[in-house]
Design a protein that fits this description.
The structure is a single chain. By secondary structure, the protein is of the alpha+beta class. Helix content is about 10%, strand content about 25%. It contains 1 helix and 8 strands, in the order H-E-E-E-E-E-E-E-E. The strands form 2 sheets. Strands 5-2-1-6-7 form a 5-stranded antiparallel β-sheet, with helices on one face. The protein is globular. It starts with 7 loop residues before the first helix and ends in a 6-residue tail after the last strand.
């Protein structure tokens, strides 16, 4: 838990801003390799894009009562034929213009849970994904 605390309405506002900034065609990109610092660009020598999805014409999620972003996984459009086999390490949420807004490292404390591998020809699964806005009271 973060050492800083924010009122839920503040966290909800931040969640809504993230949704607005992402826009109606936000992208989700799944990578292997060590995550770059912050949201700096991925290194093609260290990272491989395994899969990509687009929230076509829709917001990628909604702000929930806890002040977090509840993802709309069912709206993600995927093209599994272009996927690369591999084990994902992190997921980037970006705008339609490829501006990375959030990076979720998989399977670490405060990260996004994730299991399995990306397989060419098979859609990747997202279940009950929530972006936690830090500072819960």
């Amino acid at each position: 838990m973060s050492a800083n605390r924010f009122a839920t309405f503040v966290r909800t506002s931040w969640a809504q801003q993230l949704i607005s900034l992402a826009g109606p065609n936000a992208q989700l990109r799944v990578y292997s390799g060590p995550p770059p610092a912050g949201v700096s660009p991925v290194d093609p020598l260290l990272n491989t894009e395994l899969a990509r999805g687009v929230f076509n014409g829709a917001a990628f999620g909604t702000a929930n009562a806890e002040g977090n972003v509840d993802w709309a996984e069912q709206l993600l459009s995927q093209t599994p034929g272009s996927f690369v086999n591999g084990t994902p390490a992190f997921v980037d949420l970006s705008t339609a213009l490829d501006v990375v807004l959030a990076r979720h490292v998989l399977n670490v404390v405060d990260g996004m849970p994730g299991t399995g591998a990306v397989v060419t020809g098979q859609p990747f699964g997202l279940n009950d994904v929530v972006t936690v806005i830090p500072g819960a009271t």
